[in-house]
Amino acid sequence: MFTLPDLPYKYNALEPFIDEQTMVLHHDKHHQAYIDNLNKALETHPELQEKTIEQLLADTNSLPEDIKQTVINNGGGHMNHSMFWEIMCASSESGSPEEKLLQEINSTFGSLDKFKEEFTNKALALFGSGWVFLIKDSTGKLALKRHSFQNNPISDGNTPIMGLDVWEHAYYLKYKNVRKDYVAAWWNVVNWKKVSENFEKAS
Ligand code: MN3
Questions:
Q1: Residue 149 Cα to ligand 1 middle (Å)
Q2: How many angstroms is it from 61 CA to the middle of ligand 1?
Q3: Could you tell me the CA-to-CA distances from 150 to 8, 31, 91, 102 in Å, in that order?
Q4: Which residues of 50-64 are buried (b: 16+ CB within 10 A; e: fewer)?
Q5: In the 3-class helix/strand/coil scheme, how is 66-104 assigned residue by residue?
């Protein structure tokens, strides 16, 4: 059985950039629903219940047909949101990328500012609901990937380093339809220490 991880900070910790009410709904309702639906799907396949979320999503072709899409959607929702909470923090603790990650960002994207600009443009150009990820591919290269719905990079053989939720439920209460303002605000609460750790772990 998968369970909802606690937020690593208070619901109001990301104010004023991400508001408390959005965090409560997003974590307690949306994330919980992905977990409930995932657990329900796995009830009919007890042999899969011992697997980690990474194992389930890394090889989606091996999932039983009757629950395959449910696991991709809701297991993806669980994995994506678990990472999302972790790679954010209070703006006062946001920090900056650690040396190795910064070097890799510079050599891949030109500079940290260029990286942020490219990431932001991908988030703004994503049609409908989905995520933008910084990933490390199987050859060790950094890249930006857009994924619709809750599809996770791990299913394509890539390792997610950081991801931004651009579903409307992530920002509509505070930012209404203005995704641009949400994305601009979000950069203030990126937990660069955690992102750097994810990069190191993927190395
Ligand atoms: Mn979400």
A1: 9
A2: 24
A3: 22, 11, 26, 27
A4: eeebeebbeebeebe
A5: HHHHHHHHHHHHHHHHHHHHHCECCHHHCCCCCHHHHHH
Mean pLDDT of the chain: 97
State the pLDDT confidence band at 66, using cuts at 50, 70 and 90. very high
CB 104 within 8 A of CB 27: no
pLDDT digits (tens, 9 = 90+) for 155-169: 999 999 999 999 999
pLDDT of residue 30: 98
Answer yes or no: is pLDDT of 11 > 90: yes
Separation between Cα atoms, residue 34 and residue 129, nearest integer Å: 15
Cα 147 to middle of ligand 1, angstroms: 13
**CA 188 / ligand 1 centre spacing (Å):** 18
Question: 0.85 cut: is pTM over it?
Answer: yes
Gap from CA of 103 to ligand 1 centroid (Å) = 30
Cα distances from 199 to residues 47, 89, 93, 202, in angstroms, run 32, 17, 18, 5
Digit-coded pLDDT (tens) for 51-63: 999 999 999 999 9
